[in-house]
Amino acid sequence: MRVDSAAGPLQGRTVLLTGASAGIGLAAARQLALLGAHLILVCRDAGRGEQARAAVRLAAPRAPAPDLLLADLAVQAEVHRLSDAILARYPRLDVLINNAGVLPHQLITTADGHELCWATNHLAPFILTNRLLPLLEAAGPGARVITVASEAHWIGEIEATAAARANANRSSAFTAYCDSKLANILFTKALADRLELTGITAHCLHPGIVRSNLWSHSSWLLRLLMAGAQPFARSCERAAETITYLATLPQAAQANGHYFKNKRVARVSSRAANRAEIHRLWRISVEETGVGE
């Protein structure tokens, strides 16, 4: 992708991207910058964040210089601190991209008492999106929320309590990841319903099987399976194309609440389309975060 960023379709628009230091996030950041976006890069590590910012500047020197904000999205207090900083610094937000995600090698419980995948992959986007809605509303019709989900949602289910999600007798790190990806789709559908009259849209996507570092901390079995799948895996640049597509989609309202693969609307599991599950997920999320009521 090569576009004159000075005249790109995202010129004058502010785009916030979590998980921007590597993989799909960094590839998406480069693509969005080439289209003229003013990027807010959210990373956990300062050193890797600065490297990502430099890589984006090098890829798109004519684009506005990206901003870098640091936060550990597994910690709710950090997500709130990040939200406070964004609300204080920026008058509007055109696109919010919830990309950050983890797949650890074992079940890990955070300091807040939540399973790590659930905390990072779902509760963090839930808090951040709800907290930043005033900035999305300030951007007006066409503002959008994009969340990176996965085909792994097909075997996901939503446990009712934090204790059940962290129970090694009922879950593994991979099933916890699948559950969080189901939550991403249910969240998107719930958000689309709640924001229907605001002009803000919500979309989610499957990036494909990707040659990224997501799998580097997973179990030996998953790493072995991914090694076998490498010939069929796509590059981070190609995986990021659906993110970029949704960020620039002219008729975003027509695709509100949908799940995308390869830039097209795709089928979801019966659980992901279940209205009762959509409402139940929102209620559980409100109870566990204190936002979104």
Helix and strand layout, with pairings?
Layout: E1 14-18, H1 23-34, E2 38-43, H2 46-59, E3 67-70, H3 76-89, E4 95-98, H4 116-139, E5 144-148, H5 162-165, H6 173-194, E6 201-206, H7 220-229, H8 236-248, E7 259-261, E8 264-265, H9 275-289
Parallel strand pairs: 1-2, 1-4, 2-3, 4-5, 5-6, 6-7
Antiparallel strand pairs: 7-8
Strand order of the largest sheet: 3-2-1-4-5-6-7-8
Assign a percent range to the helix content: 40-55%
Low-confidence blocks of residues: 221-227
Strand content: 5-15%
In CATH, the architecture is 3-Layer(aba) Sandwich
**SS summary, helix count:** 9
- Indicate the overall shape: globular
CATH homologous superfamily placement = NAD(P)-binding Rossmann-like Domain
* Overall tally of structural domains: 1
The CATH topology corresponds to Rossmann fold
What gap, in angstroms, lies between the N and C termini? 41 Å
Q: What does the radius of gyration come to?
A: 18 Å
Query: Kindly state the mean pLDDT as a whole number?
Result: 91
H/E element order: EHEHEHEHEHHEHHEEH
Number of strands: 8
Q: How would you characterize the largest beta sheet?
A: 8 strands, mixed
Structural class category: alpha/beta
CATH class: Alpha Beta
Protein name: Short-chain dehydrogenase
Family: Belongs to the short-chain dehydrogenases/reductases (SDR) family.
Organism: Hymenobacter edaphi
GO molecular function: oxidoreductase activity
Brief sketch in words of this structure:
The chain has helices spanning 23-34, 46-59, 76-89, 116-139, 162-165, 173-194, 220-229, 236-248, 275-289; strands spanning 14-18, 38-43, 67-70, 95-98, 144-148, 201-206, 259-261, 264-265.
